[in-house]
Amino acid sequence: MASIAPVGIFGGTFDPIHNGHLRLAQEALEQCGLHSVHFIPGGTPPHRDAPYASAPQRLDMVRLALHRNPAFVLDEREVYRTDPCYTVDTLVELRSELGEQRPLCLLMGGDAFLTLHTWHEWKRLFVLAHIVVMQRAGGRPLGNAIKEADATLRSEYHARLAPSARALLDSPAGIIFVADMPALEISATDIRRRCSEKKDTRYLLPDAVAYYIQYHHLYT
Ligand code: ATP
Known about the structure:
The protein is of the alpha/beta class. The chain has helices at residues 19-32, 55-66, 87-98, 110-113, 125-128, 143-157, 167-170, 188-196, 207-215, and strands spanning 7-12, 36-41, 72-74, 104-109, 130-136, 160-162, 175-181. Strand 2 (36-41), helix 2 and strand 3 form a beta-alpha-beta unit.
């Protein structure tokens, strides 16, 4: 089968987007030979605390952060939703838009992967996409979680853990690949705290996003 460059899918609250998110996407782009990465800011489901910034503000910040990187794409499909919006449903939509053959790579940090078994219809994710776990140097070890996911997937879905990113090109879905990335100790929680304490947030997130936050008095 001719290989088609995979598309990366990266969901998050992005409240605000920061350099940890951007570096994760860039590492995935390079290490996995992705065609592009779709950033999908999440909605506000009823059972979860609402983000601090509004949906239009989170969109503005992601738009500013992605500016001038043609491989990074803002996808607005989830952000205004107030019903429970599951990743599996978003993947079904993307699969129908991008075609049956296109490899889709759902990107996530190691911390997110460790909670994967709690996600709605998590095993179905592997029918729709590959999962690329971006493991930060020094992050919590994935050992058992990876082995268990691998064993379940092998028996139920013929999915598997792949040692090399090459495998992502050979099929549209069904692979777990763990890529390493340098640790960037940045979190949106910490940035919001710094803003509320009127501290400088430069170099933790793009300047344009830092100015936006200041201008709109976000997180104060
Ligand atoms: P919060 O502090 O509000 O929980 P966050 O900074 O963790 O937010 P999210 O939008 O919740 O950001 O995260 C989306 C994804 O980004 C998750 O898969 C998470 O693992 C990953 N991620 C967040 N921060 C980093 C970072 N510094 N380095 C690598 N991945 C990160």
